[in-house]
Design brief:
This protein has 152 residues and is mainly α. The chain contains six helices and two strands. Strands 1-2 form a two-stranded antiparallel ribbon.
Length: 152
């Protein structure tokens, strides 16, 4: 009985690690492999998952359009190669932007550390916003802010 539970636990761990390892890189379309319809179905399922949460509406529309054109078979080989590279670029960028990055910071007044997690895209947006805020709310030069002394 204990052996069965142990084997099942190892099997479950193996399945989890295998599925986790499969998601270490972005899914890619390869027209040369054939079965384009199967690849398109797999891509459409994958982009609904958390690994592609940062896929914008514009990129999603472009991705769907390119996949539809490739699947229809009405494109010449050069156009198929261009559409395939655009699809793979969109998928790779969305995958990279959707990665979760966690950092720890020290809470003021305690020895406890807090964990803050955000996607790469959220982190980039926060950095851009901070830079914009600093630029627009810059400290005035010392000459303008210092009170003027009058000579009596």
């Amino acid at each position: 009985m204990k052996t069965t539970v142990f084997v099942l636990a190892l099997f479950a761990i193996g399945i989890c690690s295998a599925s986790h390892a499969a998601d270490k890189s972005a899914i890619q379309l390869n027209v040369a492999n054939g079965d384009i319809a199967g690849q398109v179905d797999l891509i459409m399922k994958k982009i609904e998952q958390a690994q592609y949460v940062e896929l914008s509406k514009k990129d999603r529309a472009e991705l769907t359009g390119n996949l539809t054109e490739i699947e229809s078979g009405s494109l010449d080989p050069a156009s198929i190669a261009t559409a395939q590279s655009e699809v793979n670029e969109i998928l790779s960028q969305a995958f990279e932007d959707s990665k979760l990055v966690c950092t720890y910071y020290q809470v003021l007044g305690t020895r406890q550390r807090q964990k803050a997690c955000m996607t790469v895209a959220e982190k980039k947006a926060a950095q851009v916003k901070t830079q914009r805020d600093i630029k627009h709310n810059a400290i005035p030069s010392l000459n303008q802010s210092a009170p003027q002394k009058s000579n009596p």
